[in-house]
Design brief:
By secondary structure, this protein is mainly α. The protein is about 70% helix and about 0% strand. It is built from ten helices and no strands. The protein has helices spanning about 20-35, 50-55, 60-75, 80-95, 100-110, 115-130, 130-145, 150-160, 165-180, 185-200.
Length: about 200
């Protein structure tokens, strides 16, 4: 899904010719963010540490199920009202209504500031509005609450790539890949950027 960019807030991105890259990365970023919505009730394990250990040692086929369980686990707030706000935010994003999504997700982060997924999903809405600074800040906040969320780390990498900081983007992608070694989009990003970064270092 391609969300039209508007209201960029970072000076660093002003004037940068990134339209083609941004369209591609926005579609990928939003797709990744939305991937949790259909699995929120499917977790069969609440042991995050065990799931992360299994993920690191899994085969690509096993990783699919473990990834689903982790995303479902991370989507559980423990509060019916917070869950409702999360679902409304997801629905608004699905509809391409990023302003309404921000309203719901801001209410969520106010109501449940310790719920990492609220910050993670609001970053998606800000990203879709070209508010990269605010998106990055929300991703960083999400990662202080859940440092193992490889999707949030991946999101930071996408932002770094858009603002033409490939070294930082690659670092983020490799960090995400260390947690989820079979993440297809992250693997593709590493393969895309590594020759560029290593070539420029020579």
């Amino acid at each position: 899904m391609d969300i039209p960019g508007r209201n960029a807030t970072l000076n660093i991105v002003m004037g940068i010719a990134i339209n083609n890259l941004k369209r591609t990365v926005t579609a990928l970023f939003v797709t990744v963010m939305f991937s949790t919505s259909s699995v929120a009730q499917q977790a069969d394990s609440r042991d995050e540490d065990a799931l992360l250990q299994q993920l690191a040692l899994s085969t690509p086929e096993q990783a699919i199920g473990i990834d689903r369980q982790l995303k479902a686990l991370w989507s559980q707030s423990g509060s019916a009202s917070a869950d409702l706000l999360l679902e409304r935010g997801r629905e608004a994003l699905d509809d391409g209504d990023v302003l309404t999504a921000v309203e719901h997700l801001t209410a969520l982060t106010d109501h449940a500031p310790g719920f990492a997924e609220g910050w993670h999903l609001r970053a998606s809405a800000f990203f879709g509005m070209d508010r990269f600074g605010m998106a990055a800040a929300d991703l960083e906040h999400a990662l202080t609450l859940n440092p193992n969320n490889y999707e949030a780390i991946f999101g930071l990498g996408l932002i770094f790539e858009i603002i033409e900081q490939p070294d930082k983007a690659l670092d983020a992608y490799e960090r995400a890949l260390a947690i989820h070694p079979h993440h297809e989009e992250v693997t593709n990003a590493v393969n895309r950027l590594k020759p560029q970064v290593e070539g420029s270092a020579l």
